[in-house]
Structure formats: C-alpha cells, structure tokens
Amino acid sequence: MSPLYFSVGPQHSGSGHLRMKIELQGDIILNAEPDPGFVHRGTEKIAETREYQQNVPMIERQCLPDVSSVSLAYAMAIEELLGIEIPPRAQFIRIIMCELSRIMSHLYWLSIMGIFLGHSTMFMWPFGDRDIFIDIAEKITGSRVSYTYIVPGGIRYDLPDKIKEQTIKTLDYFQGRLKEYDAIFLSNPIFERRTKGVGVLSQTDAINLGVTGPTLRGSGVRGDIRKGIPYSSYDQLDLEIPVFTEGDSYARSMVRFKEMEISSSIIRHALDNLPDGDFAVKTRKKVPEGEALSRVEAARGELACYIMSDGTSKPYRLKMSTPSFRNLPGFSLMKGSMLADMPTIYWSLDYWPPDADR
Amino acid sequence: MNEAKLIDELRDKFGESVGITELMGQNEIIVTVEKEKVVEIAQFLKDTYALNYVISVSGVDYPEENKFLVVYHVSSMSENGHLPLVLALKVSVDRQNPSTPSLISIWRSAEWHERETWELFGIEFNGHPKLERLLLHDEWEEENPNNQFPLRKDFLLED
CB within 10 Å: which end of chain A, N or C, has fewer? Predict the structure, then answer.
C-alpha cells in the first residue's frame, strides 16, 4: 500500500494557524513536517520603521498568552544599550507579571491538552481559572490580555491598592485547584497511557536540535535562564527547576504542571519582599550605537532579543529568536508514532504559531 | 571560562582570518570571521569550548558597505543547563553575490534559523539541505518581482 499524504491545518486547531504535512502508512506517521508562516506579520521589518517605545505593543502580540515575557526581553535589550539600571521595585513587579503570565499560559496549554484528549472538564476548568488571573492582570495593567505594561525603563504604573490581598486569595484558591487538576487529569490512567512513552526526545537530541523551555527540561536538561543566567532579580528569589528525564509527552506536560505550583510560590515570595521605591527611570528616545542580546525564560522557553542600534530612535535591526520557532525541530518526534498520538505530541511542545511566525 | 583566553587562542590559531573581537557586557564575545574560515572556526569553538547551542541566527543588511552580516549567537548547553557565555560569530557576506557556508553540520540547531535568513535576506547557505519557503507565502515572488527579500534595507514598506 502506498503512503497517504495529507495536511493537518492550517485551520485553527486550538492553537493558531499551522499546517503539518503528514505522510502516513496505515496508522503510522512516516514523516511529519511543520509548515509555519500563516500568521507571519513581518514585525521585525515593521519595527525598523517605528520608534523603540512604539514597538512594544506590536512586539508583545507575537505571543498573546505570555505577553509579559516578550515585552521584558525587548525592554531588557534596550536598557542594556542605554546602560540604565532598573529600580528593584520594578524588577520585582516584572517578575510577578512574568510568573502570572506563565501560569496563564500554562493554564491555556492545559485546557487545550484536555480537549485534545477528549476530556472536556479539563478544557473548562483551567479556562475558567485563567480568568481570575486575567482579572488580576486587568487590575494591575488596565488590560486583560495585551498589557504593554513592561516598557523600557521599568513598568508603566505602580501596583494598585489591595492587589496583594487579591493575588494571595487567588493563589490560595488556585493551589487547591492544582490538586484537583492532578486528581482528575494528570494522574488519570488515561492521560498517562496516552502520553507516557509517546514522542520521546533524548537528552542529546534535545541539546543538538536546540529545543528550549519545558521541551528541554522534559528531556533531562536543567536548562532554565532564570536559574542559569538570572535576570531582573530572579537570583534573589527561591526558584526550583522541575526536570523530568523521560523525554516523552508526559514529561513535558509534568514540567508545565509543576511550574504552575512553583510560579505561585515565586509570586508569593516576590509580593512579601517587594522593595519600596521608584517603579521606572527616565529613558532617552535615542538609543546609543551598539548591539545587545537579552535572554528571558518565557513560558515556552528561552526568548532572545537581539537589537542592533545605529544611534537613532528606531532599531536598525531587531531579531526575536522565539521559543516556538526554536522548538520546530521537535515536530520530528511524530515520526514512527501512531496518528492518534499526533495531537498529544504536537501540544506537548506547546507550539504557538504567531510566536514562531512573528 | 576565561573569555580573554578564548580570544587569544582564536588569534593564535587562525591569525588574520579572525577580525575584530571584543568583549561586550559581562558574558558576550563578538568575533568577526572570514567566511572561508567560518566552518573551521565553528568546529574549533564547538570542540574546544563546548559552544554547542545556537540561540539565534540574524542577518543584518549594510547597503552602504555593500555587505550583509550573518550573526550566529551560540552558547553552551549541558545536562546542568545554560552557561552564561554567549559568542556572537559574525560572518561578512558580499551583498552582490550573497553566499556563506551553512554551519548545520556543526550546529544542527542552526537549521531553521538559516532557512529563515535565506528567505528573508536572500543569503545562500551552501550545503543547507532545505532552503525552501518558510514564513512567506508561495505567491510572494510573483507579487514582489523587483525585490523579494523583505528584511533588506532597500525593501520599502508602503504606508
């Protein structure tokens, strides 16, 4: 029997517009190749025509579930070029925003993982719980999804009154809910059978292919920028890095699940130790000539922002090396799997098409 | 790792073909190399300094100097995670006939990055197995007969 060739996507499959070219023999995937680019918007080019500050809202839209990390990477690169130090208070608030983002992004991921496995309760619960985090973000930033809150020089506004109480209350509820998620889904034998031993990525391959984030940490590599090359005061907070060695869909899923718990305690710790003082410093419109590379651990992995400046108020070249783009080689894990395992392998990479396409 | 030692050793071993090297910030070294030597130097960096993990590959256009730069940001990754050092390996490429050796035989993680740079800048990576459309759509070439490469400086955006 000759192989069957077909496309999955580019219709929205729960995570944005991506096409996968699949070659199938019987029930076994012979070859799976991602075809990205359906949501390419040319942000790197457009950024060259706008001023540094104007770019923030556009750049952060490349990854809507995780906007804080994107704007942080961009701001950090500019701050390095300007040679300015960010006040400790702003650094802590940035951490709080990034960890809130990470939780929201992982909740989104967990929902879709639920629906991909036909578990509709797991689709509803995290989506509902994500909303109470969105409420916190709205109170802090004024926006529900795309905040434009982390800007070069610091953050846009200080924290509002009583936000600490609201956040602690939310986290108390949420950390209880995590146990329920575990009971109903993560420890569910059906979930385990559908993900254990599926889509295995070895430690050596993970490093050679250059994958990042939970995909890397699920393959037994302790690779997290927050720990390895701490930025924005992460070195002052307790930070545990969950690592699983199996390299399968289950391991990648468990990394994200554990991270939600850890992010919750980072937020608590940061709120308890929040320094007083300014929340922003003055920046200049023109950025001195030079180049800078900033590296941030976003929810999906390492996000690197490279800026070349020619001394004007607009970037000469802006390059965002995004985690989803760097996890593209992970699609090769589908080779040799059953077609029915394709959704869990795909979603265990937490691939976000606009993040890769930019 | 001793950054100064790395620079000295590169100069000793490769002499003239290693151009400007400088330290940036705490953990970043910039090394400009000739494209004839880039494969050898990349191999040396990987073997001797365990620089095995590509962070990004960026093209940069300099029309006045009639050149492109291809910047490989590479770092070290092991079981224990990231090491802070980042090396920016810059290859200067002639703008009229832009081609440079592909480094994916040394750094497999450069594969998709090089393909993107090929598409958006029109820089040929010799030896790359799959230089095909990635982010732009299939009709791009017909729609933009005069200039196909959006990240070049002479590709102007309409208002």
Answer: N
